[in-house]
Amino acid sequence: MGFIFSKAMNDSLKGQQEFMRLQLERQLVLQNLMRERQAAMQIASTREFLRYFGTFFGLSAVVLTAGAMKKKNPAFLMPIVPLGFVFAYNCDMGYGTLLQRVKGEAENILDTQSTLLELPKGPVTFEDLEKIRSQAKFFREK
């Protein structure tokens, strides 16, 4: 009699474990899909910004160059330098290899400098949350 009961319990436990494993796999797939969509939105946003900024940069370069030639003052060309850096950065972000380089650096930090990722005062614990909750409750009662 005990054998039949324990066999049914084991079967039920295995079924629950399989269900939990499937749920976890679904959650991981969903999180990865959401991350990919957010990254795609970021890249698309950068590319859209680049279209507007590229137009601004091109017009600025033409106008500043014409102004420098007309006034015979090369100081008019100075704003092109920082604008050029911003334009190059956004080109690299939208169409270049910046994301691969950032990913590589992030992997390097995770592998070799993981102490930089530690939270101040360590991870938040249940006791910390309860202490904050009880203090907030104390102040609300006053």
UniProtKB/TrEMBL annotation:
<dbReference type="GO" id="GO:0005886">
    <property type="term" value="C:plasma membrane"/>
</dbReference>
<dbReference type="Pfam" id="PF10166">
    <property type="entry name" value="DUF2368"/>
</dbReference>
<keyword id="KW-0675">Receptor</keyword>
<feature type="transmembrane region" description="Helical">
    <location>
        <begin position="75"/>
        <end position="91"/>
    </location>
</feature>
<dbReference type="InterPro" id="IPR019319">
    <property type="entry name" value="Plg-R(KT)"/>
</dbReference>
<protein>
    <submittedName>
        <fullName>Plasminogen receptor (KT) isoform X1</fullName>
    </submittedName>
</protein>
<dbReference type="GO" id="GO:0010756">
    <property type="term" value="P:positive regulation of plasminogen activation"/>
</dbReference>
<keyword id="KW-0812">Transmembrane</keyword>
<keyword id="KW-1133">Transmembrane helix</keyword>
<keyword id="KW-0472">Membrane</keyword>
<feature type="transmembrane region" description="Helical">
    <location>
        <begin position="49"/>
        <end position="69"/>
    </location>
</feature>
